[in-house]
Design goal:
Distance between the termini: 44 Å
Order of helices and strands: EEEHEEHEHHHE
Shape: globular
Number of strands: 7
Structural class: alpha/beta
Oligomer: single chain
Largest sheet: 5 strands, parallel
Strand content: 15-25%
Helix content: 25-40%
Length: 136
């Protein structure tokens, strides 16, 4: 929890894929009552004033992820990062799997727990897009 100027406590929530469609709605909904940070891959949110801390991260390689998690120390992580275009998933199964199975995120959260004893709750938002290779 983060203690604010008025001595209230706020849960630290990290939204991965926060610059995406769903992520932006979550930020808007959660920032009023929680301390929110988000990750983005290419573009940070600039369309509206955002009261959330941005972190540039590559979910596929994990680049920047460890630093974001260790710096922000989230208590809750909502994973909205995904490759959800069916054609892209069919063309590049490995890229789809790397993004939609967030092993680098799980590794970063394990490192957070080992180094700070903070055990973050992971909420994984899934996609309805399934590659035919997963069904074989």
């Amino acid at each position: 929890m983060v203690t604010t100027k008025d001595n209230s406590t706020r849960t630290r929530v990290l939204i991965t894929g926060g610059s995406g469609y769903l992520g932006q709605f979550l930020i808007a909904a959660l920032r009023q009552h929680h301390s929110v940070a988000y990750t983005y891959h290419n573009n940070a949110i600039t369309a509206q004033p955002v009261d959330a801390e941005p972190f540039k991260v590559d979910i596929a390689t994990g680049q920047g992820l460890q630093e974001a998690v260790l710096q922000f120390k989230p208590q809750v992580v909502v994973n909205c990062a995904a490759l959800s275009q069916p054609a892209a998933c069919e063309r590049d199964y490995e890229a789809c799997r790397t993004l939609n199975v967030p092993s680098k995120l799980v590794d970063a959260l394990e490192q957070l727990q080992q180094s700070t004893t903070t055990e973050a709750l992971l909420i994984h938002i899934s996609t309805d897009q399934v590659s035919s290779q997963l069904l074989v």
